[in-house]
Amino acid sequence: MTSIGYLGPKGTFTKLAVDATFNGEHKEAFKTIPECIDAVDKGEIDIGVVPLENAIEGTVQLTVDYLIHQVRIPVVGEIVVPIQQHLLVRSDIVQKESDIEEVHSHSHAIAQCHQYLHQNLHNAKIAFTSSTGKAAEIVSNSDQPIAAIGNRAAASEYGLEIMKENIHDYPNNHTRFLVLSHQPEKVKIKSEAKGDKTTLLITLPSDQAGALHQILSAFAWRKLNLSKIESRPTKTGLGNYFFIIDVNQAYDDVLLPGVKAELEALGCQVTILGSYSVYDIL
Amino acid sequence: MTSIGYLGPKGTFTKLAVDATFNGEHKEAFKTIPECIDAVDKGEIDIGVVPLENAIEGTVQLTVDYLIHQVRIPVVGEIVVPIQQHLLVRSDIVQKESDIEEVHSHSHAIAQCHQYLHQNLHNAKIAFTSSTGKAAEIVSNSDQPIAAIGNRAAASEYGLEIMKENIHDYPNNHTRFLVLSHQPEKVKIKSEAKGDKTTLLITLPSDQAGALHQILSAFAWRKLNLSKIESRPTKTGLGNYFFIIDVNQAYDDVLLPGVKAELEALGCQVTILGSYSVYDIL
User: Fold this and answer.
1) How high is the mean pLDDT of chain B?
2) Of A17, A201, B74, B248, which alpha carbon lies 20 to 30 A from B200's?
């Protein structure tokens, strides 16, 4: 049976992404992003799902750094999940908002609901947990009038009631997850792909003014649409950067190989992190 | 007396940055990034210090989003702190590494020391905390053979011994902090500035191929050196982006106003988030 590893614990956004995308496979929670990626690399699991961008439980830096510096596993898919935070309670203990004396959650989730908490639960104490799933677990095990902030998966995992839906301050917040595997034939995603994407890592030959502009020329005159560009330190010291660039199409036979060849001729190092399909979870 | 707010609790990297940069002021810990920024905006504190990049206890997204969407406070300085993680113990309980049965820390700190933990503390249980400071507090209050991963400030704050120094996997990891204030005259930083920087937010008029290339032309032909570029969704929906660009010089009278005028003529929205000095903490 195909096995899927994800960043745990249960009831987190990564688990929600995995459940919405895959069916029937064996699913295993990992404690950290590196542990999950290592397990894919060593073949202990077939597929790994890790957060890439705008995540609650992890940071893009950690995932990107690990994929660049430690292991090279192809990205075979991307899952986009809207961030929806709900107020979760035990309905046998809390009947109305004003009953709530304490709110538990991950600090980023607390921050995402800053306006709501300020306006509606101004007197409640805030308690930080290591994940939104952990917060739901604490509430489910307590007979005190407390609440958790978390997603729908956390509510059903720990038998909590959603007292108030969508309490996050910004409606258009998304988390991107990468699907990693050395065996792309085992990746069977139940929803339909929304489009394709290619992610490139480009290291400049020197830290000179205008170098990035020159690099982007190779994409611009081919009318290749970029959906993301980000500079990151190379970790060999401050002042040296590489770029992560997402192009809105699959790696083709002509245009993207042409970009790669030109940039390499200019002295850049170019790595294709993956060419993959994008899946939206609604 | 000048008051400084920072992202708490005690013993975190933000506190370390504040202590290394400021002298004698009244210092106040805040629970979340938005709370700290709000307090500066309302004048409850004079200066706020919040993580911007590569942070353990916060994410760039949260800080940037809040500064763009909720409040507009000038950035008056940047503090760069190397991330150095140490193994912290109570020396009356733990004498050698092999005594340690459990390691407590924030999940990002655990992940940053992934290789070290794998090689040296393979059998120790991992326990996640809401911050590196919290982990140090737990270890200081326990009579069990446990350890925390955290920085020097956490060790001295909670009276712990540094059993092993620099256990992080990558030596060149830094955290950037922004100093925010409506009263720049109150910001007195004890170390000497390393250089100047200007941060701009640029929103494109439309999501077209090559638009970013056109924007960078305005910087490139003036030979303005960019130290960072990052695209971010505008939150008005997927597919719309703005760019955060750091230029390695102060906002001057000719070159940067020229860039701004040209980009605005092209239909871009340009906001100067700040022009400020950069301070390195060693």
Assistant:
1) 89
2) A201
